[in-house]
Amino acid sequence: MTDISRKDRLRFRLSRVYRRAGAHLPELGLGGLVTAGGTVLLLQEELIKQLAGNLPVWLLAVLALPVPVAVVWLTHFVRRRRATPPQLLFGRLPFPDMIHGLVGRDAELQQVKDRARERGVIVVQGAMGMGTSAVAIKATWDLAGDARKQRYADLRGPDRDHPETPLSVAQRVLRTLDRPPGAIQEPDDATPQVIDALTGTGRVLLLDNVSTWSQVAWLPPRVPGAHIIVAGTFTDDLPPHMEPIQLGALGPDAGRDLLARQLGDERAGRDPKALKRLVDACLGSPLEIVRVGHWLARNPNISLQSLVDDLQRLPIDQKLDFVLNQSVQQLRPTAKQLLSLLAGLPIAEVDHRAAAALLGLPTAEDAIKELADLGLVENVRMTRVRVTSTFRSTGARETPQRAAAWRRLVEHFADQADSFGARLPDEDARTWFAIEDRVLLQVLARPRPVPKTGHALGRIADGLETWFRLEQRHEDRLRAAAALARAAKALDDEQVQATAELRQCAILLTAGDPRQARQHFNQAAALRVKVESWPAELHLEHAAILLASGDEFTAVESALVRYGQALSGGDVAGHALRLTNVAALLLRKGQTFDHDGRGPEAHSLYADARAVLFEALDMAHGADDRGAQAHAHELLALAHLYLGLAFDASSHLDLAERLYAGTADEIGRARCLVQRAGALLEDPKHLPDEVIALLEEAEPRLPPAGVSTALAHFHLARLRPGRAGEHREAGLAALSPWDGIAEPRQVSELRARLSAL
């Protein structure tokens, strides 16, 4: 008989009765429901009469108000108690568990605590296997025993050959501190945010597995009331003022104590000389000592002396690999197959479910445990597994079995990206993408993609596009789209390649580079010979390219008509986007008429654009697309400004700023700041310092090129005569993508104004 509690049995039976009752509801029909509901109401009324019959009138009057209030309060209290606590918004990792009984590192731990009182950043450095992470984790627990004051970021990326970039590290650190990672353009932009997040909190921020000092060189040298610990194996030189705490080999006594812990005191005490020789053979590396101890613990019939004799017959460069090779020979078939597959992956680590997908099995827990017990893999970042460096085989020959395993892995990631991408911006989806986004980029960037993976790679790229757009990480958006385009071209998958080329086109237009955007559009268009067969996105990008490259309004209008025809009737978000682009076209035509002295016609176009934008805004609300709502409000502000309705323009600009801030769209918010500064400059009573402050806030958030960037520098040049030349050059550089190609009139006029400064 199974061991199930009475509570669980009762819950199961009640849920079964509920399901059966629900299944018969259709049979009951509307009339039956009304009859049943009326019967319940009659019974309630009769019950109230019986309860109230013996109560005096004054008591009923007193209870009439407090009882409902008490019931409401009690219901709210119960629901609040049952509600699950909200998860973290940016998906930071929990701090590793306390490490007990760290052997032979007391002096180094004391050094960390002493340095923490003297300086803000403490560096713990050591070779692989020396326990650098363990010392840093234990020191953090000693400095901040309260888990609420601990922050942890593992900077060891999924690429074995290339460390994480400083920008990627800065973004990961910001997420760890519950700050939006897309709000920075350069690593140094994260420095003030780290200071603001840590100052006076008593927190300890641990950055683990750092590969190079350049990854963390942007960190503030000191944060009042907080500590930063940096731990890793550095391949470059540290600044002279850092004075790292260096972890060397364990001493002989500490090494023997550590090995004895793995074997047990009784077995270790049988042959102390052999125990000492084993420690010497491990060269004082805690990792190797633990690995040897685990292997001996699994092989109780092998004496310490026999292992020493085997090691003495080997050359020095093979001694440390001897136990590993012996462990591999003892593996069961499933674990051995998993080790071989993990060793040949182009990514350094995967989670346990991905490991099961590699094998084509429901779970790989037993195989992972077997490998971990022998020290052949490491369990890192909670449920992630990384193969030991000794068994990496990046040049492994591709076999049908490896290709099939890779296809299963790509399909697994595609399913996960679909599932979590559809749930963004929920907290669990954010957490998954925060952990896996670099791994997914590595999957897309595999040099030789495996056949029949094009569709799955496209789904992975779709998930990454949704995630990176949410975080406003435009460089990563471009990197993912470029990797997908290369993979699709290698696989001869034109449909996926067209999607990737169009995505690059859209991103480059956002970044203000119409020349490069046009090249990617042309590559996408070349894959579709007939215009009628173009997907809807291709028509939209065609319209955007034409609008960015000149004032061919008829061609733009034709492309938008084709885009609308290609959309399905139920695509509310797509139609909202179409109307927003139609309004942008009307505004641009109105500007042209204004410059040509055709004021009444321009005014009519502005009014038409406003009406179209209100319709687009209504559709964007229906689709719950906050990004589309923000863009519509931004254009509505322009329309009202052109119509001379300054108050309405300011109101829509406020709404656009708030929506852009809510979606972490720093570029959109910066455009609004430039627009607000331009509106203030039209007021004769404007305060120059106020306008300069707006432009200085916007400028670092804008892309390097584009009309908004050039306009910001134009305004700053007028407000700062002493630095007019500097801003003129920066503004002209922002317009350089249009050099040598057709350009809209607004670009030509802005270029002329900048040149005349």
From TrEMBL:
InterPro entries from the UniProt entry: P-loop_NTPase (IPR027417), TPR-like_helical_dom_sf (IPR011990)
Keyword Transmembrane applies: yes
Transmembrane segments: 21-43, 55-74
Keywords from the named record: Membrane, Transmembrane, Transmembrane helix
Protein's UniProt name: NB-ARC domain-containing protein
Organism: Nonomuraea marmarensis
